[in-house]
Every structure is written in C-alpha cells, then in structure tokens.
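Take a sample.
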Amino acid sequence: MSTDLTPPPVPSSQPLVAFANCELVRMSDTAVLVINRDNNRQQMMAPQVVQGLTGCTTFRAIAEHANLLAASRPELQGRPELAVQALEGLLANGMLLRASDAAERLSGDTGPEPAATRVFLITCDRPAAVERLLESLLRNGKLSRHEALYLIDDSRQAESRAANRELVAGFNTRSPVDMRYIGEAAQQALLEGLIASAPDAEAGLRFLLDPARWSGQKTYGRARTLCLLLSVGCRAIVMDDDVLCQALLPPVTEPGLAIAGSASRQAAFFADRDALMQAAVPADFDPLSGHASLLGRTVGATVAAACPDGLSEQQLHGVNASLVSVLEASAPILVTQSGSWGDPGTASVHWVLSLQDASLTRLLGQEASLVDIIENRCTWLGSPRLSLIKMASMSQVTGLDNTALLPPYFPAFRGEDRLFGAMVEAIHPRASALEYPWCVPHLPVEGRHFSIREPIAATGGVSLFARYLTDHIDYKDASGPLLRLRHVAEDARRLAARSDRDLLLDFRTEVARGHANQLGMVIDQRQKAAKIGSEAWLAYLQRALDETQALIAQPQSPAMLHGVPEGSREDQLLEKFRHYACGFADALDHWAAVREASVGVAARLDQAGEFMA
C-alpha cells in the first residue's frame, strides 16, 4: 500500500506573483475599481475577473495560477492560455505583487543588539519535575549568560512549596547564577508593592495576580504574568516544569525559511518512550541559548540566519502574499517558540486531524495500531525549518521580548497562550513571532491518559475571544501599542455590555465558525484518504465528520463547555463572562503603569531578600 503524498516539484525558473493588498470598489454590476495599495496603481475590472483573482492570493508562477483558474472558472472553459494572457496584462499594469520585490523588502535590517535575558521556570505541585529540570539546567544550560534565574511557584500544596524552596536552595550551591524563588510570600509582597505604587490599578492587579480570585482553577496565565512583571526591559525565556534543558534536532529538516500566519508544524510518531528517546539527536547548543539567538532581533536578522545567500523568491512559493505585505525587515521578533519531543502538549488527542501530508504518512506508516500511536503521546511535533509566523501559539519553552509592551496573560483556564498570541498580534500588528527548527524533551512525570474516545468537536472557551481579536485586527492602524492595548480593553467591555441574547448569539456564531473550520479540515482529509487506504483512519474521519455535523445541527450553549458544572444556567454563565471580560479590561487599562512600577518594586523586594529560597 503506497502512502506517498509528496507534492509535485515547484517550478524554479518562472517569476512568482500574487493578487493581494488591493482595495476593491464596486462601481456597477459590470465594473469593479481595483486599487493596488503597494504602488497606487488602479484598474477597472469585470466582477468575474476580480472573483477569479481572489483565488490567486499566494505567490505562484503565472502558469500555475492559470491552470488553477482554468480548472475552476467556467468562463475560461478549461483554456489556461486565456488566463495567462490576462495575468500577464495585469502584471504589466502593476496590479500583481512580485515575490522578488517582497524577498528584497524582507532582507537587510538586522536590528540592534538585544537586551539581557532572564530565565523563568513555572511550576504547580510537581517538585519531582522541578528537581529533574534543575539538574538538566546545571548539566546543559550556559547559565552565566543570563542576567537572572527565577522559579515561579504556583503550587497549591504546602509540601510542594517547601520541597521546591529546598530544591532552589540546593541548586544555588552549585549554580554560577543564583535562582530567585518566587513563592507564595514573594508573590503576595509583589502584589502589595504594586498596589502601593499604582493604587488606581488595584482592581486589575487583583484580577491578574490574587490567587484567592481563582481558587480551584488552573492558573497557568497568572504564573506567566508574574514572569512578565519580573522581566520588564529584558528578554524572558519561560520554561514549563516538565521539560528538560536540552535542545534536540528534528527528525525531519527542510532548507530555508517558512513564512506563515501560524505555526505549520510537522510530526513524527514513536511506538513507546524507549523508541522516542533512542531516536533523539542532541543539538550542540542548549535551548536557552537557542531561544536567545533571535529573540528581540528582526525579521531581517531571521532571514539572514535562514538564508545566508539571501532570500530568493522561490522561498516564497505558496506563501500568502497579504501576509508577506505586512512584514518588513525591521519588524521585531517579539515571541519565539520551539517544538516538543515526547508529549505534544495538546489539550486532546484529536490534534492529529490537522496533520499535513508528510506527517500523516508517518502516522499511518507505524506498525502499531492507530489508536495506540495516537494515545501514547510519544511524538515529535515541531517545525522542520526556521519559520516566521504572525501568530504565536503553544510552546513548552517560550521566548518573550519584554522590552516591548507585551500584554498580560489571562490568569486562568486553558487557551491562555492562544489569547496571548492574539493580543500580541493586535497590539503589534507589524511584529512577528518565530518558531525554531529544534525541540525540547517534554516528558511529564505524572501519568496522563488521553483517550481517542473523547469528543472530537470543540465547544469553545478562551480561544473564542482570541479568534474574535484576530478577526478585527486593522493592519493599516498606525497608532501605537498603548492605544491598541486600550482598544483591546474597549473590545472586551463592549462585548460585556451586550444583552444576554446577543452574547449568546455571538457565542454560537464563533463556535459555529470553529466547527465550520473543523468540518472543512475533515472533508479535506477524507478526500486525501483515498490515496492512503487505511480503514482505521477512514473510520476515524467518518466519526469526526458525524460528531461535528451533529453539533452543528444543534444550538450551542456555554453550558456545554468543558469543565462547566452540570446544571449551570446560561444567564449565570454569561454574567460570569461579563465579570471576566470587565476584570481583564481593568487590568489592561492600567497594565502599562503596572509594568513601569514593577521594575522598582521587584528591585526593592530582591534587595530585601524576599526572593531568597
């Protein structure tokens, strides 16, 4: 049985062009005025021509565009030569973007030397994982290269906090750089110091940092916000407690640079933990140095690192031209992420439904059953090459350039990383994130079981607001980050002010969009599945299709969200959403002042010994 899904080779001699970054003004039923925002050229076109061009938004050779148009536009009657003639005319009139111009624009500016780095470990009731991570830091980390090290202890159990404090004290007897311990007392002192320095921000600060506000909830975002407050003016590298300080090379590599809206990761699968670790190939650097290499630099510096001989237009083949048009060489890299070796870190097993062709081939080529391979979570998930992305997402080790105005994380619940990425994009629409082509071991010490029998179709959560934000970003907005941060706060308040009826309709609309995306993905996978011939995979896809269609057919409710107590009323849940939205908006309103105050408050607490283990 063949599972070869390798795409045909890309033409290398023809120039690449795309139709993008144009304003469309309908003048009549037979005419549309098209204005190119890059060069101010304009041309009157027939509506059917414009409609056809909306399928030419990625950089391809004219012959490729023409073949696609001839196959999809009935007026061409399968004659690509007619499309070639039209496209060449548009190119001559300046109505198409050239990939060569974009490649030139993205090259050159490497930016100033970046700021110092501070390293953060975040943990919650896993001292065994902390001990393992600290040992790997001592063994592999070039710790003297970093200005400071911190452990943010979000543990609920007193015995975990005591164990972590003792582990940090022992670490400091062996490390060239002392680690600060930010436990319960230090966090309370920081909160009180910030309130004293910025009293107007008290309500927002308590929303972000007061653990009493989030009793019983998982506060991943709260711990990450503490990292931001302790690294203002620096670059922060944040490590989850269940990783190792070791960089591993990916099992699949590709040359050059990828450019995408979000991380386009590949995956490889292993039969068990032994096979996973035997296949690991260490890199010649540690992940802290790896993240620091381009964090806080520029798009131009990234291009130079990935393409020492210069970015060629062929590197942009298939790349969305609208995405490239908002990038420039001087744009900063504000967030960096890396892949995972082991547990992929996804919230469910059903992430495999989004696998691209090569990764799917690797999944279905395993000798073990499909269910066993999906559930055992022995996986490489990452990028095979350096990737510029506009939207940061999950990473077990994350780099944050905190010299820029970065937003706080939402304090609780899952999806805080996706919302943070959307907010960074909304506040800094011209900036970029970066995924490195290497990974770190992600090996949870506690037992985790993910069942393929879990529901497939998502019902929403914090990520719904993230999608709302990204759908409303104005890339032509020339206002500064502070004003755009206030716009995000205003958006949250506007949503909270809506009636129950409108809020519920908004919720259902956003959930339906997510289901539509999932439905399209599953349908696309089914069309490709005929080439693979795996009965187990086909059955899984059919189940995904059936579940998603069943959810689409019934009205969605916030009472259906994962983790919501059974019997919750919609009106109570909507009121709770309003509370969260307004509380987060209060925090965003005062965030810039809080950041400024945090530098002095943290320095005073450090000098007073509040951060000592």
User: Anything to note?
Assistant: Residues 500-529 form the longest helix (30 residues). Confidence is low (pLDDT under 50) at residues 1-10. The two ends are 60 Å apart (CA to CA). The chain has 22 helices and 17 strands.
